[in-house]
């Protein structure tokens, strides 16, 4: 199947055009982009009406599919369950310290469908999903996850999260603020490290074999964060990911408490310096957040080619701090964008994230020449995101040979592009996704006029409402009780860390 969009407004996000829109023709054959021309008047001459669907695209704005380079699909279960809270207190509810009852494979499938539908309707065609079941995913839940993404038509890198450090040893000042009984119980909960590591290796190998059966699914390894895994485990995950040519995903310096913990654990070194010594930094490492980075950290990340994924809305919701947008770009660090999960955002809209990234950092510096510019935001949402998610070889730009992952905006729908002055600027600052008329993934039309075409989204969402209500009716009260039990101690640690940061003149 060949489709030719004639005289479209195109955003290529490539080396030639950058993020400047231009008029041209876009030809797709099967799953791939065949040609992109910007002649005036634009023409692709090697087609006939018989073998090609020709679209008058004068009123259409076509961009690469957006990439959500950091999310947690499972958190749709807990959307709206808490007020804005600091990460370490929010985690007590969203990732209960005493574990959760595993969800059924059907519920895993349904919750992933919900996340996929929200992504696709908002123009996201690729996600890096840091998935997780506590204590660990199973082959069955992994298959349900892959199948949901495949059924919906979304492209995904799925990173099974893993932890091998007890809760008490992941929290700064824990020895001082937690009762001895809690400390002892926390450390007793993780004893068979060799067994846990072996299980994760087996799960990863199983997931990799499964992913081979899905054209748009790739896997990644995800040691949750440096302070949540032992060094040996982290190094082994890095070695395995690098050997398989896969993404190594982690959370990095999301909060001030994590920075304080690093100071004691790493003998005065920063976490990034420690990762550098371990040989973990590199172009396949995707680090979410990166809020509390030092100047030296920026240099190490840039030199190694590590990607940092900015999650401005979850950072705001959790009060984590302000990522150093201009400093990261000046240092040459590749920056991508993510929504984070639906219980720490609570939306999976990358349009909201783009606008937040463009505007939030105007508060960083009175020198407006250092504020974010639209082109940086668009690169973060497309080509940089594709690389961070492990799909840079297939998506992120409108280039011949890349997959036809496209978002088609109707410039005459609604008001975002009316009047039309600068489509790129209006895409970031005015558009909320409501002008999207079509979404294509791998050359296949998956969304049209606000409807997912490959699944019965209404029926699946209705089923999810019923299944999730049953599951949470049993689980949520216990999780809330755990949060209430631990919150006073964690609050003490949190306020102490911020007090020390304030005393040192940090943000």
Automatic annotation (TrEMBL):
- Residues in Amidohydrolase-related domain copies: 61-446
Membrane-spanning ranges: none
Report the Pfam families cross-referenced here: Amidohydro_1
- InterPro entries on file: Amidohydro-rel, Metal-dep_hydrolase_composite, Metal_Hydrolase, MTA/SAH_deaminase
Q: Which SUPFAM superfamilies match?
A: Composite domain of metallo-dependent hydrolases, Metallo-dependent hydrolases
Print the keywords alphabetically.
Hydrolase
User: What are the recorded GO MF terms, alphabetically?
Assistant: hydrolase activity, acting on carbon-nitrogen (but not peptide) bonds
Q: What is this protein called?
A: Amidohydrolase family protein
